Structures are given as C-alpha cells and as structure tokens.
C-alpha cells in the first residue's frame, strides 16, 4: 500500500512540475516554426544522397577513408569502379589521391562474404605504383561494405600473392586490419 501511495505521489509531482498548467478547454497554440508548405532556401548545403559510401584513398603514403553520399547502395563492382576512377575534385582539394595503377579489376562476391578480385595487368604509364597502398585501398574500400568481410586477389583465376601492410606477401583473404599500420587519420 505504501508503494502505491509513493508511486501516485511521484506521478502527481511529475505532472505538476512539468510547467504546463491544467486547463479544461482546448486553446490555440502558436508553434515557433514556419508552415510546412513554405519553401525556404537552405542555409547550409547538405551532402547529396541517402547512403554513405566509404572509399579508401591515399594522402602522404597513408590510407584515408573518404565518405561519399550516394542515392543507393552501389554493388561491389560499381564501388570498385568508382575507386579506380580516383578521387573527386573535392577529395583532390583535400590532397587525396590514388595508388591504383590499373583499370582492369573485376570483383565477385560468392556467398562466403570473401570478395574475389581479378587483377589484370597493370598500366605501366600510371603515375603511382605503390602496390601496398593500392591493394590496401581495394581491401579497405570493399571491406567497409556490410556484405564483404575479406578480399582475395587472383590473376587469370589463380591466387595472387599481394603485400600486406607489413610488406609480407600472402595469397590468403585480406581484411582492413592487415593494413592497419598504413591507415591514417582522415
């Protein structure tokens, strides 16, 4: 019985202390906002798109995540194609670049959540050829997706040995943690 009285007293005190006086009749309330049908030009430009897409780019020999806003979640191949295309003008203005020296990358994602990336021959005319950063860009970009846990590389369907962040070679599937020593602040 004491608990019930205490609970009722607490509820009464909370209701009385909320600052809204009790009224018997409804009345008009003026809200401090504009009408919903009024159009106002935004004062701050928000990023376009509903989905955050992570791209791993390079700044000062470090991997840096850049977030792009897109309308829908792109497939793994589309995201890889965008990585190959390089940084946007806004990303270049932030001194971001790419270490990718190839345009021939194809990704498939079997049901195991390990993406298999087919690597074609590299373009010898490319400006950069730092393989560790290039493979790190691919791994970090693709594993930022919810549907990909690791990335393996192959050439002509055969496993390809690629460098980890510590420069050791492996043909095993790689994760972003394998490039932890190369990941820098954004």
Automatic annotation (TrEMBL):
Q: Does the keyword RNA-binding apply?
A: no
**Does the record's keyword annotation contain Signal?**
yes
Arranged from A to Z, the UniProt key words for this protein are: Signal
Domain (GerMN): give its ranges.
Answer: 76-164
- One Pfam entry for this protein is Germane
InterPro entries from the entry?
A: GerMN
Indicate the secretion signal residues: 1-22
The identity of this protein, by name, is GerMN domain-containing protein
Which species?
A: Actinoplanes flavus
């Amino acid at each position: 019985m004491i608990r019930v009285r205490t609970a009722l007293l607490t509820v009464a005190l909370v209701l009385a202390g909320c600052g809204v006086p009790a009224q018997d009749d409804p009345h008009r309330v003026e809200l401090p906002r504009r009408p919903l049908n009024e159009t106002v030009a935004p004062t701050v430009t928000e990023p376009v798109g509903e989905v955050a897409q992570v791209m791993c780019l390079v700044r000062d020999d470090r991997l840096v995540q850049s977030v792009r806003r897109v309308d829908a979640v792109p497939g793994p191949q589309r995201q890889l194609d965008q990585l190959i295309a390089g940084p946007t003008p806004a990303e270049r203005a932030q001194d971001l670049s790419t270490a990718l020296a190839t345009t021939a990358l194809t990704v498939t994602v079997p049901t195991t959540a390990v993406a298999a990336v087919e690597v074609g021959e590299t373009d010898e005319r490319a400006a950069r050829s730092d393989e560790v950063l290039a493979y790190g860009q691919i791994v970090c970009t693709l594993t930022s997706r919810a549907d990909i846990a690791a990335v393996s590389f192959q050439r002509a369907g055969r496993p390809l040995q690629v460098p980890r962040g510590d420069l050791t070679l492996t043909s095993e599937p790689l994760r972003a943690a394998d490039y932890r020593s190369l990941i820098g602040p954004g």
